[in-house]
Amino acid sequence: MLSFESDYTEGAHPAIISRLSETNLEQTPGYGLDKYSESAKEKIKAAFALEGADVFFLVGGTQTNSTVIASMLRDYEGVIAVGTGHIGVHESGAVEYTGHKVLTLKDHEGKMDAGELEAYLKAFYADGTYEHMVIPGMVYISFPTEFGTIYSKEEMKAIHSVCQRYSIPLFVDGARLGYGLMSEANDIDVKEFASLCDVFYIGGTKVGALFGEAVVFCGGAPAHFFTTIKQHGALMAKGRLLGLQFDTLFTDGLYFKIARHADEMASRLKGIFLEKGYETFIDSPTNQQFFIMTRRRAAELHDKVRFEDWCPVDKDRIAVRFVTSWATPVGNVLALGNIL
Amino acid sequence: MLSFESDYTEGAHPAIISRLSETNLEQTPGYGLDKYSESAKEKIKAAFALEGADVFFLVGGTQTNSTVIASMLRDYEGVIAVGTGHIGVHESGAVEYTGHKVLTLKDHEGKMDAGELEAYLKAFYADGTYEHMVIPGMVYISFPTEFGTIYSKEEMKAIHSVCQRYSIPLFVDGARLGYGLMSEANDIDVKEFASLCDVFYIGGTKVGALFGEAVVFCGGAPAHFFTTIKQHGALMAKGRLLGLQFDTLFTDGLYFKIARHADEMASRLKGIFLEKGYETFIDSPTNQQFFIMTRRRAAELHDKVRFEDWCPVDKDRIAVRFVTSWATPVGNVLALGNIL
Amino acid sequence: MLSFESDYTEGAHPAIISRLSETNLEQTPGYGLDKYSESAKEKIKAAFALEGADVFFLVGGTQTNSTVIASMLRDYEGVIAVGTGHIGVHESGAVEYTGHKVLTLKDHEGKMDAGELEAYLKAFYADGTYEHMVIPGMVYISFPTEFGTIYSKEEMKAIHSVCQRYSIPLFVDGARLGYGLMSEANDIDVKEFASLCDVFYIGGTKVGALFGEAVVFCGGAPAHFFTTIKQHGALMAKGRLLGLQFDTLFTDGLYFKIARHADEMASRLKGIFLEKGYETFIDSPTNQQFFIMTRRRAAELHDKVRFEDWCPVDKDRIAVRFVTSWATPVGNVLALGNIL
Amino acid sequence: MLSFESDYTEGAHPAIISRLSETNLEQTPGYGLDKYSESAKEKIKAAFALEGADVFFLVGGTQTNSTVIASMLRDYEGVIAVGTGHIGVHESGAVEYTGHKVLTLKDHEGKMDAGELEAYLKAFYADGTYEHMVIPGMVYISFPTEFGTIYSKEEMKAIHSVCQRYSIPLFVDGARLGYGLMSEANDIDVKEFASLCDVFYIGGTKVGALFGEAVVFCGGAPAHFFTTIKQHGALMAKGRLLGLQFDTLFTDGLYFKIARHADEMASRLKGIFLEKGYETFIDSPTNQQFFIMTRRRAAELHDKVRFEDWCPVDKDRIAVRFVTSWATPVGNVLALGNIL
C-alpha cells in the first residue's frame, strides 16, 4: 500500500548500500577511528565551512539529543525548548532521565520566538528566588520543526543573539536538516548555518541513511565527549558504518540533492491537495505536509494510503500528516492524486 | 595487514548484506514493529526453546547492558559482577550513570564462583548495617567471559540456584554467545541455555551482524520495556535493520555455523602458537586466545600483524590477545603461522 | 521589624525546645531506631486513624518530595502535577535530578481539577504513540496549595478516584498540612484524610518544628525505603531529633492547636486588609494571604514590615503575600493593622 | 547501660542547646542567609586561615559527600577512594545514584597511599582504552579514616601533590575532623590543613552539634552550589539552625576543645584495655578504638556495655570498636575499666 507515513520507512540511498557491500570484508579499527569516519568528518566540515568544529557520529535522534544535551549542561541546568519540541514529548523522558529539566516556552507553529525567549530569561534572573529553580543552560530548537516549519535567517540570528547575551549555547536538532536547508522557503545558506548556532546535528536516519546522526560542535566538543558517548551506550563498535554513510552522503552533495527531491515531492503533493480543495493545517515548506479533512474522509483514505492522523481540529475534522522523503518516487505522489 | 585485533573489524555476513540490499526500498513500520523483527523473534524463541520469552533488539553491547540492568533494578539495588566484568571496566560507567553500583566479586579467569557469590550474599544479609548499603538486585556474568572462558552447565546451574534462593535475576552478557555455545568445551545445549538464567542477550555485533544484540527475557519483559529502550536512546527508527539481521542469522542455524567456524579458527591458531613454543596466558576454548610472549617479541610482531597487548605478566613478558571471528579465513591463520 | 514573610522564620514551639534540652544527654540508637521515633509514629497513626501505615521522618520538604516520588516511580514514569506545584518550580529540578519528568496540568488557584486529570490520562492512553512518551506514574497535589487554597472532600475524592481507576498513587504534599486541616473552610476530618490519598507528608518545618516532615505511606512503604532515604542523603544520624519533635507535636493535639492559631491570625489579618479596602488576589482560607496593592504602596510598606511580592497583576499593581504561623502573636497582626 | 557505640548517641553540646533556646523566637531569613550563618562562616574561615574560601552548611555526612562530589565531577568522571571509604560502603550507593562511579584503591588501615594513587593514575592514562573507562575526576579521603587513623602532613602533601599533577581536586571527608586534628599523633596545624586539600568538610554531627557539616571550598565554590544543594534536597529552610551551631562551635575554640576531650578519653580507654591485656586491632590515635577479643568475651561484655562488633579476626576472635565523643564523661571510661 502507498505510504506517506514517515521519512524512515525505507532503507538507505542505494549508493550507501553499494558502499556497505563493497567494503564489507575490509578490516578497520573500531569506534569511529577508521578512515571512512575521518573522511566523512572532513567533508562535513567543508560543506558547512567549519574549520575548528568537532564532528561525532551517533545512531539515532533521541540518543543524540540526550547525549549532547547532557554533555553541555551542568547538573543544575535545564534546557529551554518549545512545548512541541521533540525532546519534551516523544523521547520518553530521555532528557529528564539524565537529570535535566526541559523548560518550556510556547511554540508558534513549532517555532520559538526570540522575544519570548529573552523575556523568559530576563524574568528568570529578575526573580529573587531564581536560585531555587532550574538554571537555564541551553536552548534547543528544531530545524525544521516538528511541524515542518523553518526559521528565517533573521529569526535564527535573533535567537542566537539572545543565547549569546546570556552565555548559553544554542543547539539545533537537525533530524531533518537537509529538508529544511533545501526548502525553497529557506534563506540560510549551508555555509552560514553553523554560524547561527553552537552545536547542531545533521540527521541521516530521515535523509538517506540507514541510521546515523552527525553531531557538529561548531567551536569544538566538550571535554571527553567520546567517553560521554560510550557512557550513554551510543558508541558503535563498527563505527565505520556511520562514517561510510556520511561519507557517501557528503560526496558530491548527495545529501542535499536527495533532500531537495523530497521537498519537491512535498511541494507537488501540497499542490494536489490544494487543487482538490483541502486546506493546510500548517503551511509547511518542507517534507512534512499537514492538511485538514473530515474524520470520515480520513477514515476512508486510510484504506488506500498510509499516513498519520495528527490531531483533532474540531468536532468533525482532524489534521493529518503526509510525509515525503529522499525515496519518494514521483509516481507515488501522482498515485496519491488519483486517490484523493 | 593481517589482523587478529578483534571480532568487530569486518562488516556483516554476506547473507545479511544481500538481504539489506534486496529489501532496501520496501516500506515498513518503524521501531521494530515490522514483519522481519517479528519473524526474527519467533526464530530466536524456537532456537532457544522458549515460549513465554520476550525478545527485543538493541544496537550495541554497552547500551544493552545498561538498559537491561536499569530496567530490572530498583533504585536502591546494585548489580553483582566479577571485577573483570565488562560493565565494571570498559563501559565508561554506563551502569553507574543510570544510578546503580556495580558490586564486585573476585574473578577466576573471568568467571564468577557460585560459592563466593553465595558467601557474599549470606554475609551481606548477616551484616546488621546492610540497610546502609547497596542492596544486591541482580547477578551479571558473561558467557563467554572477557577472557574467552565459559561456564560449565554445573557452574551455571550453581550460580542460578544461588540467584533463585535470593530471588535476584541472573543476567548473561552474551556479546559473544555464539562463540561460547559452539565451543568444543561447552556442555550446555542451546535449547537448555535459557533455563539456566533469567535474561540474556545474543550478541550480533561480534557474531556476524553489522550491529545488534537480541535481548531475551526468558519469563517475559519488565513492564514498559519499549519505553525504557526509547528513554535510553536505544530505539532504532528503522527497527527492521535489526530484525532482518537476526532473522538471517537465525535462519538455518547460520549464527551457530559461523560461530563454530570462529572457534575452529581459534583452535587452529592456538595449536600453531603451542607448536611454536608459546605458552597460553589463559586457556580459552573460544575465539579469544591469550598467549605469553616477551615484550620484544610482541613489539616485533606488531609490525606484521595486528593484535592487542593485554596486560603485563612480569618484567620482560606480557600477555597478548589474538581474536578470530566468523569472518576469519583459514588462510589468515596459516599466514600468521608463517610469521610467528 | 515586623515580619509576615514566611512560616519558617522562627525556631520551634517552646515545648519542643524544652524536650530537646531535657533529653539532650540521653544516649539513643541512631537513624530513627530510638524510642521517641517509635512513639511519634504510633501517635501519628492514631491521629490519622491508620493502622497499616508506615511512617518515616525526613528533614525538609524538597528532600521529602524527591525521595518519596523517586521511591514510588519506575524509571519510565513521571509525576503529574499542576504547573504551580512546588516540585515543578521551586525545587531546583530535584525531581528531574532523580530521572523523572514532571508532567504538568493547568492549575486553578493552585488546585488540580479531577476532570482535567482524567481527560489527560484518557487522551494519553488513546494516543497511539504513548509508548514514546513518559508514562504517568503518580499524581502530586499540595494541601493546602502554594496559594493557600484547599481541596474539598469531594474534590479530593474525585482526584483519588481517577488515580485508582488508572492504578497510580496519589501523593499529597502536606508541607502546611496542619494549616489546611484546621482551616474553617476545610470539610475533611483528620481521621478520614488518609483515606483520600495513598501517601502524604505532615509538614513540621512550617508548623511548629525546627525541621522535619513525617511521610505516611497509608498502605505500607515501598520495599527498602530506609535504604532509599539513606541513598538520597536524607537519613539523620540522630534520628531522635525528628522523633522527639513529632512526638511533642502529636501529644495532646499540639500540632493541630498551633495550626488553628495560625489560621485564626490569618483570618484576622485578612479582615483588617479588607476593612482597609484592599482586595484579595486569591481568597485563601489558610495561613498564606494574598492581596492586591499598587507597586508604590507595596514599596512604602516594605519599609515597615516584611512580606513577599508575589507576582505582577497589571502595570501599576502587584499581588503580595502575608503569612502567619504557629508563632505569630496577635499583637503583630494588630500592629500590622496600624501600619496599613 | 554504658555505651561506647558511636559518637552520635547524644544530642549537642549544652552551649548549642542554650543558644537555640535563647534565639528560638527570633525571626530570620531562611536558607542560610541569616546573620548566624554569616558569622559562623567568618569564624570558620578565620580558624582555618582561609580568605578566599566559600563555606556552606549541610545536614549530614552522606548528603554532604554526594552533593559535593556531584558538584565537582563532570558526568564522565568518577571519584577515587580506598575500598573502605565511607562513600563506597555505607552510603547506600548515594554517589552512584548521582551517576558517578567510585573507583577503588587498596586501603592501608583505612588510608590511601600516595604512591599507589600515582601508579593508578599513570597506568590509567597509559592504557590505550582509557577513553572507554570512567575518567578519574576527584580523590576522596577521610581524616580521620573509618579506622580512626590519620594522615601525617607528609602523607597528605604527597597525595595532594599527585592530585595537583593530574589536575583533580582532593576532597577530605572530615566527619570526625576535630578528633583527627586534636589527636596527639597529628602533626598538621589547623591553620595549614586547608592548604593540603581543595575541599573538605568539618563534621558537626559527630563533634558536638545536633547535626550539620560545614563544607569548605578552599578556593571558592563551584558555580551555583546553592542551587545544587537545593536540588539534592539538602537545603534547610531554617538555615540559621546550622549557622548557630557552627557559630557556637567556632567561638573560643569550642570545637577543638571538645574534640580534644574525646581523644583524651579514647587514650585513657586504650590504656585500660592494654593494661587488661587486650591487643589493639588497629592502633588508632583518635576517638575510635579497635581491640581484639574472643567472641565469647565480646558476647559477655555486650550484656554490660554497648559497643560494636567490627569484623572477624579468626575462628575464635573478633575485632570490636569502642568510641568516645565530646560527651563521654571520664566516669564512663573508669566504669568500663571495672567491667573489663
Describe this structure in words.
- 4 copies of one chain form a homotetramer.
- Chain A contains 14 helices and 13 strands.
- The first copy, chain A, is α/β, with parallel strands linked by helices and 340 residues long.
- A 7-stranded mixed sheet of chain A has the order 2-8-7-6-5-3-4, with helices on both faces. In chain A, strands 9-10-13-12 form a 4-stranded antiparallel sheet. Chain A has a two-stranded parallel sheet with strand order 1-11.
- In chain A, strand 5, helix 7 and strand 6 form a beta-alpha-beta unit.
- In chain A, helix 1 crosses helix 11 and helix 12 packs parallel to helix 14.
- The radius of gyration of chain A is 20 Å and the shape is globular.
- In chain A, 58% of the residues are buried.
- Chains A and B meet through helix 1, helix 3 and helix 10 of A and helix 1, helix 3 and helix 10 of B.
